[in-house]
């Protein structure tokens, strides 16, 4: 038997319940802290596409420095760590045109 303390009261629980409580607490802990890369990308695009301001065109033909400024603003607001040195060595760009 294990013991679980809730609001200062100890409750006896079996191993199955103890394992379930541990699993749930780990899942909650996983949701705290820094976002995953995919969560940050989806969050950034959600923010970008819901802003009242229109984002200028972004392509190789345009000055895309606004993109870096927006990313920096999003990262700062969400307390994301800055890119690591040589982060681009792990980067793979999708090929082809966006059909959107």
What does this structure look like?
This protein is mostly helical and 100 residues long. Among the domains are: 2-31, no CATH class; 35-51 and 62-80, no CATH class. Helices cover 44% and strands 10% of the residues. It has helices at 15-31, 37-50, 65-77, and strands at 2-6, 9-13. It has a two-stranded antiparallel sheet with strand order 1-2. Strand 1 and strand 2 (9-13) form a beta hairpin. The relative contact order is 0.08. The model has no long low-confidence stretch (mean pLDDT 77).
Write the layout of secondary structure elements.
Blueprint: E1 2-6, E2 9-13, H1 15-31, H2 37-50, H3 65-77
Antiparallel strand pairs: 1-2
Helix pairs in contact: 2-3
Short description:
The protein has 100 residues and is mostly helical. Helix content is 44%, strand content 10%. Strand 1 and strand 2 form a beta hairpin.
Shape: elongated
Coarse structural class: mainly alpha
Rg from alpha-carbon coordinates? 22 Å
| Low-pLDDT regions | none
C-alpha termini separation: 57 Å
Largest sheet: 2 strands, antiparallel
Round the mean pLDDT to the nearest integer and report it. 77
List keywords for this structure.
3 helices, mainly alpha, elongated, two-stranded antiparallel ribbon, single chain
């Amino acid at each position: 038997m294990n013991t679980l303390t809730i609001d200062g009261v100890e409750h006896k629980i079996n191993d199955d319940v103890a394992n379930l409580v541990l699993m749930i607490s780990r899942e909650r802990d996983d949701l705290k802290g820094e976002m995953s890369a995919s969560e940050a990308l989806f969050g950034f695009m959600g923010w970008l596409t819901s802003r009242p301001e229109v984002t200028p065109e972004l392509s190789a033909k345009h000055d895309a420095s606004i993109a870096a400024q927006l990313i920096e603003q999003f990262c700062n607001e969400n307390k994301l760590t800055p890119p690591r040195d040589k982060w681009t060595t792990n980067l793979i760009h999708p090929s082809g045109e966006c059909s959107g």
